[in-house]
Amino acid sequence: MPSATKALLDSLKTSSYHIKTVVKCNMSKKASASVKLIVRREGGNKRYDFEAENAQLAGEINFHFVLFSEIYGMLNSGDMYLFPP
């Protein structure tokens, strides 16, 4: 890997959040390839804007965030079991 690329990757900042902290995920109306993710933090909500390669990929990212949030909610509400009792 060239040193310029390695330096760029080493300087990137990452964050991890549990799926239950995701408040909202949607596609931007202005730029169809953008995804907005809002997560709950101690100091208030934090918004992240991501850009996908195209609108279809942005839709898939949005779909999966919504799907995982709904599955997590169902598993913790007792309405659905991953493994039946």
Give a written overview of the molecule.
The chain is α+β, with helices and mostly antiparallel strands and 85 residues long. The protein has one domain (17-77): PH-domain like (Roll). Helices cover 38% and strands 26% of the residues. It has helices at residues 3-11, 55-77; strands at 22-27, 34-41, 44-51. Strands 1-2-3 form a three-stranded antiparallel beta sheet, with helices on one face. It is globular and about 50 Å long.
What's the layout of helices and strands?
Blueprint: H1 3-11, E1 22-27, E2 34-41, E3 44-51, H2 55-77
Antiparallel strand pairs: 1-2, 2-3
What distinguishing features does this structure have?
3 strands, 2 helices, PH-domain like, globular, 85 residues, alpha+beta, single chain, 3-stranded antiparallel beta sheet
> Tally of extended strands?
3
Helical percentage: 25-40%
State the end-to-end distance.
Answer: 50 Å
CATH superfamily: Pleckstrin-homology domain (PH domain)/Phosphotyrosine-binding domain (PTB)
CATH topology: PH-domain like
Architecture, according to CATH?
Roll
The largest β sheet comes out as: 3 strands, antiparallel
What is the chain-wise order of helices and strands?
A: HEEEH
- Domain count: 1
Low-confidence stretches: none
Class from secondary-structure proportions: alpha+beta
- The shape is globular
Widest sheet, order of strands: 1-2-3
Please give the count of helices.
2
Which percent band covers the strand fraction?
25-35%
Q: Rounded to an integer, what's the Rg over CA atoms?
A: 16 Å
What do the pLDDT scores average to? 82
What is the name of the CATH class?
Mainly Beta
